[in-house]
Write a structure and sequence with these properties.
It is a single chain. The protein has a single domain, classed as 3-Layer(aba) Sandwich (Rossmann fold), CATH 3.40.50.12640. α5 packs parallel to α9. The chain is built from 11 helices and 7 strands. 53% of the residues lie in helices and 11% in strands. By secondary structure, the protein is of the alpha/beta class. The strands form 2 sheets. A 5-stranded parallel beta sheet has the order 2-1-5-6-7, sandwiched between helices. The structure holds ligand PTJ. The site of ligand PTJ has 23 residues, from α2 and α4.
Protein backbone atom coordinates (compact mmCIF):
# COMPACT_ATOMS: atom_id res chain seq x y z
CA UNK A 1 0.00 0.00 0.00
CA UNK A 2 1.21 3.50 -0.93
CA UNK A 3 1.34 5.79 2.14
CA UNK A 4 0.00 9.28 1.24
CA UNK A 5 2.72 11.98 1.24
CA UNK A 6 0.88 14.09 3.80
CA UNK A 7 0.53 11.25 6.34
CA UNK A 8 2.26 12.41 9.55
CA UNK A 9 3.74 8.93 10.18
CA UNK A 10 4.74 8.26 6.53
CA UNK A 11 8.42 7.46 7.20
CA UNK A 12 7.62 5.14 10.11
CA UNK A 13 4.87 3.35 8.16
CA UNK A 14 7.15 2.84 5.17
CA UNK A 15 9.74 1.18 7.40
CA UNK A 16 6.97 -0.98 8.87
CA UNK A 17 5.99 -2.04 5.36
CA UNK A 18 9.56 -3.20 4.68
CA UNK A 19 9.05 -5.58 7.61
CA UNK A 20 5.60 -6.82 6.58
CA UNK A 21 6.78 -7.29 2.97
CA UNK A 22 9.87 -9.07 4.34
CA UNK A 23 7.60 -11.34 6.36
CA UNK A 24 5.54 -12.21 3.27
CA UNK A 25 8.77 -12.90 1.33
CA UNK A 26 9.93 -15.38 4.00
CA UNK A 27 12.79 -13.23 5.36
CA UNK A 28 11.30 -12.01 8.64
CA UNK A 29 10.18 -14.29 11.49
CA UNK A 30 6.70 -13.76 13.02
CA UNK A 31 8.44 -12.63 16.21
CA UNK A 32 10.50 -10.21 14.13
CA UNK A 33 7.33 -8.11 13.63
CA UNK A 34 6.86 -7.95 17.40
CA UNK A 35 10.53 -7.10 17.94
CA UNK A 36 10.14 -4.21 15.48
CA UNK A 37 7.15 -2.85 17.43
CA UNK A 38 9.27 -2.82 20.57
CA UNK A 39 11.98 -0.97 18.69
CA UNK A 40 9.43 1.58 17.37
CA UNK A 41 8.35 2.40 20.92
CA UNK A 42 11.93 3.17 22.00
CA UNK A 43 12.51 5.11 18.79
CA UNK A 44 9.42 7.26 19.45
CA UNK A 45 10.81 8.17 22.88
CA UNK A 46 14.15 9.03 21.23
CA UNK A 47 12.35 11.50 18.94
CA UNK A 48 13.08 9.20 15.96
CA UNK A 49 16.45 10.83 15.37
CA UNK A 50 20.11 10.03 15.74
CA UNK A 51 21.51 11.59 18.91
CA UNK A 52 25.16 12.63 19.39
CA UNK A 53 25.75 9.59 21.67
CA UNK A 54 24.69 7.31 18.78
CA UNK A 55 26.92 9.12 16.29
CA UNK A 56 29.89 8.76 18.69
CA UNK A 57 29.11 5.04 19.03
CA UNK A 58 28.95 4.69 15.22
CA UNK A 59 32.41 6.28 14.97
CA UNK A 60 33.76 3.98 17.71
CA UNK A 61 32.23 1.00 15.88
CA UNK A 62 33.92 2.09 12.66
CA UNK A 63 37.21 2.40 14.58
CA UNK A 64 36.85 -1.16 15.91
CA UNK A 65 36.23 -2.35 12.35
CA UNK A 66 39.32 -0.54 11.06
CA UNK A 67 41.44 -2.26 13.72
CA UNK A 68 39.85 -5.70 13.19
CA UNK A 69 41.59 -8.53 11.33
CA UNK A 70 38.52 -10.68 10.67
CA UNK A 71 35.32 -8.65 11.15
CA UNK A 72 31.96 -10.36 10.61
CA UNK A 73 28.51 -8.86 10.14
CA UNK A 74 25.73 -11.07 11.58
CA UNK A 75 22.45 -10.58 9.72
CA UNK A 76 19.00 -11.71 10.85
CA UNK A 77 15.61 -11.49 9.11
CA UNK A 78 14.73 -7.97 10.28
CA UNK A 79 18.05 -6.50 9.17
CA UNK A 80 17.87 -8.21 5.77
CA UNK A 81 14.39 -6.73 5.23
CA UNK A 82 15.23 -3.23 6.52
CA UNK A 83 18.65 -2.40 5.08
CA UNK A 84 20.21 -5.08 2.82
CA UNK A 85 22.09 -2.54 0.66
CA UNK A 86 23.63 -0.85 3.69
CA UNK A 87 24.74 -4.26 5.04
CA UNK A 88 26.62 -4.80 1.79
CA UNK A 89 28.00 -1.23 1.78
CA UNK A 90 29.31 -1.54 5.35
CA UNK A 91 30.79 -4.98 4.74
CA UNK A 92 32.66 -3.53 1.73
CA UNK A 93 33.79 -0.37 3.55
CA UNK A 94 35.05 -2.44 6.52
CA UNK A 95 36.27 -5.55 4.64
CA UNK A 96 33.84 -7.59 6.76
CA UNK A 97 32.32 -10.96 5.91
CA UNK A 98 28.54 -11.35 6.06
CA UNK A 99 26.89 -14.27 7.88
CA UNK A 100 23.23 -15.17 8.20
CA UNK A 101 22.57 -15.85 11.88
CA UNK A 102 19.03 -16.63 12.97
CA UNK A 103 17.16 -17.35 16.16
CA UNK A 104 14.21 -18.91 14.28
CA UNK A 105 16.47 -20.85 11.97
CA UNK A 106 15.08 -22.72 8.98
CA UNK A 107 16.89 -23.57 5.77
CA UNK A 108 14.24 -21.66 3.77
CA UNK A 109 14.81 -18.46 5.75
CA UNK A 110 18.61 -18.82 5.58
CA UNK A 111 18.40 -19.10 1.81
CA UNK A 112 15.83 -16.31 1.36
CA UNK A 113 17.99 -13.93 3.42
CA UNK A 114 21.18 -14.93 1.58
CA UNK A 115 19.41 -14.31 -1.74
CA UNK A 116 18.18 -10.89 -0.61
CA UNK A 117 21.79 -9.99 0.31
CA UNK A 118 23.31 -11.30 -2.93
CA UNK A 119 20.58 -9.51 -4.92
CA UNK A 120 21.70 -6.38 -3.04
CA UNK A 121 25.31 -6.85 -4.15
CA UNK A 122 26.92 -9.20 -1.58
CA UNK A 123 29.61 -11.39 -3.16
CA UNK A 124 29.70 -13.99 -0.40
CA UNK A 125 27.19 -14.85 2.29
CA UNK A 126 28.23 -17.33 4.99
CA UNK A 127 26.18 -19.23 7.53
CA UNK A 128 23.92 -21.31 5.25
CA UNK A 129 23.72 -24.77 6.79
CA UNK A 130 26.26 -23.70 9.44
CA UNK A 131 27.18 -26.52 11.81
CA UNK A 132 30.01 -25.24 14.04
CA UNK A 133 28.76 -24.15 17.49
CA UNK A 134 29.67 -21.15 19.58
CA UNK A 135 30.32 -22.40 23.13
CA UNK A 136 27.99 -21.39 25.97
CA UNK A 137 24.87 -20.93 23.84
CA UNK A 138 22.10 -23.46 23.32
CA UNK A 139 19.84 -21.55 20.86
CA UNK A 140 20.18 -21.91 17.07
CA UNK A 141 22.06 -18.60 17.16
CA UNK A 142 25.04 -20.67 18.36
CA UNK A 143 25.54 -22.02 14.84
CA UNK A 144 28.39 -20.31 13.02
CA UNK A 145 30.09 -20.97 9.74
CA UNK A 146 33.43 -22.61 10.42
CA UNK A 147 35.02 -20.20 7.95
CA UNK A 148 34.19 -17.42 10.42
CA UNK A 149 35.22 -18.94 13.72
CA UNK A 150 38.31 -16.69 13.84
CA UNK A 151 36.20 -13.53 13.75
CA UNK A 152 37.62 -10.89 16.12
CA UNK A 153 34.91 -8.21 15.78
CA UNK A 154 31.24 -9.10 15.28
CA UNK A 155 28.42 -6.66 14.43
CA UNK A 156 25.12 -7.84 15.88
CA UNK A 157 22.08 -5.70 15.11
CA UNK A 158 18.82 -6.65 16.93
CA UNK A 159 20.42 -9.47 18.86
CA UNK A 160 19.60 -11.61 21.91
CA UNK A 161 21.75 -10.88 24.93
CA UNK A 162 22.92 -14.44 25.43
CA UNK A 163 24.75 -14.52 22.08
CA UNK A 164 26.52 -11.26 22.82
CA UNK A 165 27.67 -12.70 26.16
CA UNK A 166 28.87 -15.91 24.49
CA UNK A 167 30.75 -13.94 21.80
CA UNK A 168 32.46 -11.81 24.45
CA UNK A 169 33.40 -14.91 26.45
CA UNK A 170 34.94 -16.28 23.25
CA UNK A 171 37.19 -13.19 23.21
CA UNK A 172 35.45 -11.30 20.42
CA UNK A 173 34.59 -7.60 20.38
CA UNK A 174 30.89 -6.97 19.84
CA UNK A 175 29.21 -4.00 18.16
CA UNK A 176 25.47 -3.94 18.93
CA UNK A 177 22.71 -1.89 17.31
CA UNK A 178 19.75 -1.81 19.68
CA UNK A 179 17.15 0.88 20.37
CA UNK A 180 16.78 -0.42 23.93
CA UNK A 181 19.78 0.74 25.98
CA UNK A 182 18.67 -1.52 28.85
CA UNK A 183 18.70 -4.79 26.91
CA UNK A 184 21.27 -7.42 27.82
CA UNK A 185 22.78 -7.07 24.36
CA UNK A 186 23.13 -3.30 24.75
CA UNK A 187 24.61 -3.66 28.23
CA UNK A 188 27.06 -6.43 27.29
CA UNK A 189 28.45 -5.17 23.96
CA UNK A 190 31.76 -3.30 23.63
CA UNK A 191 30.10 -0.60 21.50
CA UNK A 192 26.32 -0.08 21.56
CA UNK A 193 24.62 2.08 18.96
CA UNK A 194 21.27 3.10 20.43
CA UNK A 195 19.60 4.12 17.20
CA UNK A 196 17.30 2.73 14.53
CA UNK A 197 19.24 0.38 12.27
CA UNK A 198 17.78 2.16 9.22
CA UNK A 199 19.28 5.50 10.34
CA UNK A 200 22.61 4.44 11.77
CA UNK A 201 23.75 2.06 9.02
CA UNK A 202 24.41 4.82 6.43
CA UNK A 203 26.21 6.76 9.18
CA UNK A 204 28.43 3.78 10.01
CA UNK A 205 29.27 3.38 6.33
CA UNK A 206 30.37 7.05 6.20
CA UNK A 207 32.51 6.68 9.35
CA UNK A 208 34.04 3.42 8.10
CA UNK A 209 35.00 5.04 4.77
CA UNK A 210 36.44 8.12 6.51
CA UNK A 211 38.56 6.01 8.88
CA UNK A 212 39.66 3.40 6.35
CA UNK A 213 43.35 2.59 6.85
CA UNK A 214 43.75 5.22 9.64
CA UNK A 215 44.74 2.82 12.40
CA UNK A 216 46.37 5.44 14.69
CA UNK A 217 43.25 7.58 14.63
CA UNK A 218 41.04 4.50 15.16
CA UNK A 219 43.15 3.48 18.14
CA UNK A 220 42.76 6.95 19.68
CA UNK A 221 38.98 6.84 19.20
CA UNK A 222 38.72 3.45 20.91
CA UNK A 223 40.90 4.52 23.84
CA UNK A 224 38.71 7.52 24.59
CA UNK A 225 35.35 5.81 23.97
CA UNK A 226 33.20 4.95 27.00
CA UNK A 227 30.22 2.65 26.26
CA UNK A 228 28.77 3.03 29.80
CA UNK A 229 28.51 6.78 29.20
CA UNK A 230 26.71 6.13 25.87
CA UNK A 231 24.19 3.86 27.61
CA UNK A 232 23.54 6.34 30.43
CA UNK A 233 23.04 9.20 27.96
CA UNK A 234 20.65 7.07 25.89
CA UNK A 235 18.61 5.99 28.92
CA UNK A 236 18.45 9.56 30.25
CA UNK A 237 17.27 10.81 26.84
CA UNK A 238 14.52 8.17 26.69
CA UNK A 239 13.37 8.86 30.27
CA UNK A 240 13.09 12.59 29.54
CA UNK A 241 11.46 11.91 26.14
CA UNK A 242 13.12 13.56 23.14
CA UNK A 243 11.34 15.70 20.56
CA UNK A 244 11.61 14.86 16.85
CA UNK A 245 14.19 16.95 14.94
O1 LIG B 1 15.46 -13.29 12.30
P1 LIG B 1 15.63 -14.09 13.57
O2 LIG B 1 15.06 -15.48 13.47
O3 LIG B 1 17.05 -14.13 14.04
O4 LIG B 1 14.80 -13.35 14.74
C1 LIG B 1 15.08 -12.01 14.97
C2 LIG B 1 14.34 -11.40 16.18
C3 LIG B 1 14.34 -9.88 15.98
C4 LIG B 1 12.91 -11.92 16.23
C5 LIG B 1 15.07 -11.80 17.45
O5 LIG B 1 16.39 -11.40 17.36
C6 LIG B 1 14.43 -11.21 18.69
O6 LIG B 1 13.53 -11.77 19.28
O7 LIG B 1 14.93 -10.04 19.07
P2 LIG B 1 14.51 -9.35 20.46
O8 LIG B 1 15.05 -10.14 21.61
O9 LIG B 1 13.07 -8.98 20.45
O10 LIG B 1 15.37 -8.03 20.42
C7 LIG B 1 15.22 -7.10 19.46
C8 LIG B 1 15.85 -5.80 20.00
O11 LIG B 1 16.08 -4.98 18.89
C9 LIG B 1 14.91 -5.03 20.97
O12 LIG B 1 15.67 -4.50 22.04
C10 LIG B 1 14.35 -3.91 20.09
O13 LIG B 1 14.12 -2.73 20.84
C11 LIG B 1 15.48 -3.70 19.11
N1 LIG B 1 15.02 -3.22 17.80
C12 LIG B 1 13.89 -3.55 17.13
N2 LIG B 1 13.82 -2.92 15.94
C13 LIG B 1 14.96 -2.19 15.83
C14 LIG B 1 15.73 -2.37 17.02
N3 LIG B 1 16.92 -1.78 17.21
C15 LIG B 1 17.39 -0.98 16.20
N4 LIG B 1 16.69 -0.75 15.06
C16 LIG B 1 15.49 -1.33 14.83
N5 LIG B 1 14.82 -1.09 13.69
Amino acid sequence: MEVPDDHPRKASLEVRHLLTDGFKAGLVAEAGLIAHGRGEAFDYLLGERTHPFADRACRAAAALLVLAKNPVFSVNGNVAALCPKEVVALSEAADAEIEVNLFYRTREREEAIAKKLTDSGAKNVYGIGASTRLLGLSSPRALIDKALKNADVVIVPLEDGDRTEALRKAGKKVIAIDLNPLSRTAQTADVTIVDNVVRCMPLMVRHAKALHGKTDEADKIIRSYDNKKTLIEAETTIRKGARPA
